[in-house]
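Protein fold
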Amino acid sequence: MGGRIALHYALSRPERVRRLVLESSSPGLETEAERSSRRTSDNDLAARIEEGGIEAFVDGWERLPLFESQAGSDPLALSRQREIRLANDPVGLAQSLRHSGTGVLPSLWERLPEITVPTLIVVGILDTKFVEIGARMCALVPHARLVVVPDAGHCVHFERPHAWLDAVATFLSEN
C-alpha cells in the first residue's frame, strides 16, 4: 500500500518530490468492476480483522502465497517481522482497508506519464505479478528504471536487503 500512496503523493504534490522509489508497487486496479470487487473483499477482510483480532489476521496474512518466498528467511528476522505485524491496531488496519485500500483509491495507470522525476521501481523476480506490473509502469513513467532482484519475492527489502539497498543507494546517488 505504501507505494500506491507514494504514487498518489508524487502526482498530487510533484513540486515536493525529487526522486521516487517504489518497491513492488501498483498504480491500482484499472476498472471500476475490479475496484468494486476489491472493495467488497477488503470490507469483508476489515470485518474479519475487527471480529477475529490481530493475531488471526497475521496468521492468515503470513500464509498468503505472496509471502511464500520468505520461508527461507532468517528465523530471527521473521520473528521480529511478526512482532511488528502483531503490534498493529486491528481497528486501524480495518479502517485503512476501508478508506485507502486498492478498491477505494482511483487507478493511476493513465497518470503515470505525468511523473517527471527519476523513478526507481524495484521488484523481486519471484513475484511475477509485480514484475509484470513494474515493467508496465516503467514503460509509462518517462524517467523510470526497473530493477528486478534475483531470489526475492514481494518484500525485496526484507528478503534481499543488501540487493535492495545497493539498488536504492545507487539510484539516490546519481545526478
In short: The chain has two domains: 1-28+106-175, 31-104. The domain at 1-28+106-175 is CATH 3.40.50.1820 (Rossmann fold). The mean pLDDT is 95. Strands lie at 20-23, 119-124, 144-149.
